[in-house]
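One chain shown below:
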Amino acid sequence: MHADLKQLERKLGIAFRNPELLKQAFTHSSYVNEHRMTVSRDNERLEFLGDAVLELTVSEFLFAKYPDRTEGELTKQRASIVCEPSLVTFAEALHFGDYVLLGKGEEMTGGRTRPALLADVFESFVGALYLDQGLEAVQAFLRLHMFPSISWEGRPQIVDYKTQLQELVQQLGAGALEYRIVDERGPAHEKEFLAEVWMDDRQLGKGSGRSKKEAEQQAASQALARLASPQG
């Protein structure tokens, strides 16, 4: 069963102006085939757009970060970042597979964890975010969830948001961070933890996850998004 997209928005600290775009980004063609009376659009067109937006934003990032690299080197590096294995890494880190709307057959054959599907969903999400809020919103999302894990050597690694948040707080000369597990719900085999991250008397972010560690990571991710926003 897919998870609630509102939960994903809370985790990412992003509120879509047009929720239908977000739903479309996570709607697989197999789901449309089984629900033609109520659903008419899958995520394939958004995937096409997201692929182009990723090419542009990653190109811009590499161009600025590596001023001494040649065109050929930048092209190869970009290809290694936007390739399927890398996009799968980012999609898995964000648990995008939990939110995909799938047909019964695709669900039964493990489509939720299929690499090609996860890479496509990451691209379609980027396409939807671009249409909903523009290029700056995509750049802000990638600055949090993709760019920090990119190095010149090797494939991107899963982002450690808690470490990023700690480093940012130290740079700002702010107070000490404290993580709190504020709730546990669900049966033992499907436990969900709710976490908050605080700095002094200010709550910076909330998160949920299947483990305390995952919940804290999601809280740190939301805190990073909040601190990176103009409102701070």
User: Anything to note?
Assistant: The CA atoms of residues 45 and 100 lie 16 Å apart. The two ends are 35 Å apart (CA to CA). The chain has a mean pLDDT of 86. The chain has two domains: 5-149, 161-228.
